[in-house]
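Whether sequence alone determines local backbone shape is best considered at the level of individual chains. When preparing material for the folding task, we compiled for one chain both its residues and its backbone structure tokens. No coordinates are needed to read the tokens, only the vocabulary itself. For completeness, the protein is quoted in full, as a sequence line and a line of structure tokens:
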Amino acid sequence: MENNKILAITSGVVLVVITGLILRLARPVFFPFFLAIFFYFILSPTLDFLMRLKIPKPIAIFIIIAIAFCGLYLLGILIYASGKEFAASFPQYGEQINSLFSSILEKMGLSRVSWDPWAWSKSLDVNKVTSLVVGSLDKIFSFFSDFALIFVFLVFMLSGRGKLTGKVDKAFHPGRAKKINQILENIDSQIQKYLIIKTGVSLIAGIFTAALLFAFGVHYAILFGFLTFVLNYIPSVGSIVAILLTALAAAIQLGSFWPALWILLILIIFDSFLGSFLEPKLMGQGLGLSPLVVLFSLIFWGWLWGIPGMILAVPLMAVIKIICSNIPSLQSVAEIMSN
């Protein structure tokens, strides 16, 4: 019995490692596939709505794909161009960074002290920082180059929506088929609810950040709004990173400490409202993930696919948890993953 347990654990570890290697090597195919699943659950309610309006399914799919493709493509061009412009103008902010640090030193009464805590900034290689920013942008927005494959997957997924129920009815006897279809319907509705609410809350955070930066006269407000939207999919850590980067960029651009501090405080208060009140109220109980699961998923998917993988990590784990919670034999796994 003990040998069987050891064999089972060893087999499980080997299976996870092999699966990870396959996902890593096959990233050009699997990453667009997972993104297509993500878009499928978000766009499915729109397809259902258009079909209730008696619009033929092929035409409804064409409308959805055309609008989604044009919207995402234009957004991708806008964000990528803003990011490149920001990276190109970064060297110009060198003097403003030193001016800002000098101002902070004066306010702290350290301007006459021989030790300079910001000495590192004077030796900072701005060209290397610019290259790092450009490289990060290339990784973050690389999925825009996968548009064609993503939408091919999405067309097939949307085309097959609603057909699984009939196949299950034919494959199993009525009692079992009804139970399976009920489980599939619950999984579908819960995944839709999670992804739509998470995307909606992230969108609110991104729009609010962009509007706030516009109000304070900070450049590249749309870029930082999009960054907030994307990083908000990473619980706690993502929103904190987005807020700090936004406040830092505001301080550097405005060359003043106090407006950046106000931006920081407003964003912290608004993020606390979203994370502690709005999102939990909309999500309800049972969709939270354990912090340990979140950390593991960020490390695992980050190792697999880099920054884009970290962005998709938590939604993917939430989907896995929802699936496990609806299958009796896997409910213990869902319980372990719960917050």
User: Anything to note?
Assistant: DSSP finds 14 helices and no strands in the chain. The mean pLDDT is 78. Residues 251 and 279 are 29 Å apart (CA to CA). The radius of gyration is 24 Å.
